[in-house]
Write a structure and sequence with these properties.
Order of helices and strands: HHEEEEEEEEEEEEEEEE
CATH class: Mainly Beta
Strand order of the largest sheet: 3-6-7-10-11-12-13-14-15-16
Distance between the termini: 124 Å
Number of domains: 1
Number of strands: 16
CATH topology: Lipocalin
CATH architecture: Beta Barrel
């Protein structure tokens, strides 16, 4: 009797709940919106607190390479280290002409005589050139020294001996060509040079190869310093004395210059001023070394 009553209750419950349960289990699910989860930013916990990550696609795409706006770079920039040792500045080309006013000369014919006003000159030319990724330069430097000799006894070269000599106007000159490669910026070069030197004092022309450093003028700026120092270990040449045979005259020579350039904006002309000179010691057959020095001032032009 009890079992029949319980069975009737269960049957009645299933008759009421069955259709609803069946409808719930058989109702199709709505498919998720593709990309909806990905479009929403995510929040992560970082050392400084919660951080919202940007949604995918919200950041700009990287610029393509080569990029015309980036000088057709073929690969993404690597940073400042990619330009170490390369030509960073535009090259410069200039010439300058100067008056040495006045020079002081020491040699076998002069004990420190002051040169004649306005008769001693110097000139320089510099051409900076790109060679692949690096800078090189070629240049020239010429100097002319005009001075009165000291009257008195003079010691000649080699076997010439010593004798009296009146004062007269003497001229010494030296010219060199040079070439170098940039070793540091801005425009500091290591270079080699070929020097030719002569005089009107009845001495032979001498020549030799030297080496040194040169800081070029930054004539693309309003003001810059420049200078050079070269050492020539053997500047010499042969000479002959009547009835006494042939000999070799030679010196060790240091040649230097320090100066500044001043250039108005957008002007190709610049003011050139400084101090220059040389100093030598005897290697063979010369009675004494020579020494020329003096301030200079002039104008230059860049092109």
């Amino acid at each position: 009797m009890i079992r029949r009553a319980a069975l009737a209750v269960v049957t009645s419950f299933l008759a009421v709940a069955g259709p609803a349960a069946a409808q719930t289990t058989t109702q199709p699910q709505t498919p998720p919106n593709a990309g909806a989860a990905e479009a929403r930013p995510s929040t992560v916990q970082g050392p400084g607190g919660p951080t919202t990550l940007p949604s995918p696609g919200s950041l700009p795409a990287p610029a393509p390479y080569p990029d015309p706006a980036n000088n057709d770079t073929q690969s993404p920039p690597l940073g400042p280290q990619q330009k170490l040792g390369r030509a960073l500045n535009r090259t410069v080309h200039y010439i300058a002409g100067d008056i040495i006013a006045p020079p002081i000369v020491y040699d076998a014919f002069s004990t420190g005589e002051k040169g004649f006003d306005g008769r001693s000159y110097a000139g320089r030319a510099v051409f900076e050139l790109p060679l692949g990724q690096y800078d090189v330069y070629v240049g020239a430097d010429a100097r002319k020294w005009v001075y009165p000799t000291t009257a008195g006894f003079v010691t000649g070269i080699g076997m010439a001996g010593r004798g009296p000599l009146p004062s007269f106007a003497a001229t010494d000159y030296d010219e060199d060509v040079r070439a170098g490669i940039k070793v540091a910026g801005p425009r500091l070069y290591g270079a080699v040079s070929y020097l030719l030197r002569g005089t009107t004092n009845d001495e032979p022309r001498v020549r030799g190869i030297g080496y040194g450093i040169e800081k070029l003028a930054d004539v693309d700026q309003n003001f810059s310093l420049h200078g050079s120092v070269f050492y020539y270990p053997n500047v010499g040449g042969p000479y002959a004395l009547a009835g006494a045979g042939s000999y070799g005259l030679s010196y060790r020579v240091v040649r230097y210059l320090i100066g500044a350039s001043i250039q108005p904006n957008h002007s190709p002309v610049f003011l050139d001023a400084g101090f220059l000179g040389d100093k030598s010691t005897v290697r063979t057959d010369a009675p004494v070394g020579f020494n020329h020095q003096g301030p200079y001032v002039g104008l230059g032009i860049q092109f």
